[in-house]
């Protein structure tokens, strides 16, 4: 599903000088914005020639299907480029992976990217955040406040394809990161999201949900909360990759849709609570 943008109908496509998509965006009606920072899989041709990683390894550390889930919001910006080109959820000086320790001990490059290549990637980073600031400022001007669904997926079979998964007690189906926000200010929104997704009638069961168990949120939510401290609330939503085989990249379409429906079920309550603040 990664790389297929058919569900982005009506989106504006922002391209680079070579006419390769940088991101897709859509401006609709309402206070909810979403993004999927690690859903992209594209690499610039010059970087594709230099990468030491095969597609399967890159895909394993990317977040397939999160781009589809982001479209539950009326407003969204969804990057097309891989995190192995530029990671929009890291500080700018860490956004280009250069050493194995930057990327789960993977050897990312055959040869270290040149300064010009790095600056090109960082220019993409800057362009995204400049557009994001304009987008969110417009939402504040129109609605007064906004909520962001910052959608990710995380691996839970790092021991290997034939090995047991990580302990479910410490690896919930849904991890909500709230570590970069003023938790007291946004408590009604956070708690309504947690309540509604826990109560959702997921096929065959209820989802296990934790707050700040695996991840607390990183650069993107910190950036939003710093620039919009009284008007912007980011919910950093990490979905365990139970909907796919993280080693082969094969997804279960029924589970992908079920996760999307679960996320969509939280939207009315979150919007309701935001409007009460």
What's the layout of helices and strands?
Layout: E1 12-15, E2 21-26, E3 32-35, H1 45-50, H2 55-61, H3 66-70, E4 75-79, H4 115-143, E5 146-154, E6 174-177, H5 187-199, E7 209-211, H6 219-227, E8 232-240, H7 253-265, H8 267-276
Parallel strand pairs: 3-4, 3-5, 5-8, 6-7
Antiparallel strand pairs: 1-2, 2-4, 6-8
Helix pairs in contact: 5-8
Features:
single chain; 277 residues; alpha/beta; eight-stranded mixed sheet; 8 strands; 16% strand
What is the helix fraction of residues, given as a range?
Answer: 25-40%
Strand order of the largest sheet: 1-2-4-3-5-8-6-7
Considering the protein shown, what is the CATH homologous superfamily?
Zn-dependent exopeptidases
Shape: globular
Distance between the first and last residues' Cα: 37 Å
Task: Count the beta strands.
Answer: 8
Could you walk me through the main structural features you see in this protein, from its secondary elements to its overall organization?
By secondary structure, the chain is α/β, with parallel strands linked by helices. The protein has one domain (12-276): 3-Layer(aba) Sandwich (Aminopeptidase), CATH 3.40.630.40. Helix content is 33%, strand content 16%. It has eight helices and eight strands; from the N terminus they run βββαααβαββαβαβαα. The chain has an eight-stranded mixed sheet with strand order 1-2-4-3-5-8-6-7, with helices on both faces. A hairpin with a 5-residue loop joins strand 1 (12-15) and strand 2. Helix 5 runs antiparallel to helix 8. The chain is globular, with a radius of gyration of 18 Å.
């Amino acid at each position: 599903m990664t790389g297929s943008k058919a569900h982005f109908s009506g989106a504006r496509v922002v391209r680079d000088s070579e006419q390769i998509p940088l991101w897709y965006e859509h401006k609709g009606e309402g206070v909810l914005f979403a993004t999927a920072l690690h859903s992209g899989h594209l690499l610039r041709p010059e970087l594709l020639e230099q990468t030491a990683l095969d597609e399967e390894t890159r895909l394993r550390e990317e977040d397939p299907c999160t781009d589809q889930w982001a479209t539950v919001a009326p407003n969204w910006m969804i990057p097309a480029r891989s995190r192995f080109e530029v990671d929009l959820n890291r500080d700018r000086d860490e956004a280009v992976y250069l050493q194995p320790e930057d990327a789960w001990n993977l050897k990312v490059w055959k040869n270290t990217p040149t300064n010009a290549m790095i600056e090109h990637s960082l220019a993409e980073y800057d362009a995204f955040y400049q557009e994001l600031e304009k987008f969110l400022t417009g939402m504040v001007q129109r609605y007064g406040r906004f909520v962001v669904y910052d959608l990710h997926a995380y691996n839970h079979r790092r021991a290997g394809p034939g090995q047991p998964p990580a302990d479910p007690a410490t690896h919930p189906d849904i991890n909500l990161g709230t570590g970069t926000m003023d938790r007291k200010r946004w408590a009604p929104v956070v708690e309504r999201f947690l309540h509604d997704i826990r109560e959702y009638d997921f096929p065959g069961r209820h989802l296990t949900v934790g707050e700040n168990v695996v991840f607390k949120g990183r650069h993107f939510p910190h950036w939003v909360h710093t620039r919009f401290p009284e008007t912007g609330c980011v919910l950093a939503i990490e979905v365990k990759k139970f909907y796919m085989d993280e080693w082969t990249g094969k997804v279960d379409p029924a589970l992908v849709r079920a996760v999307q429906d679960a996320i969509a079920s939280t939207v009315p309550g979150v919007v309701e609570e935001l409007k009460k603040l």
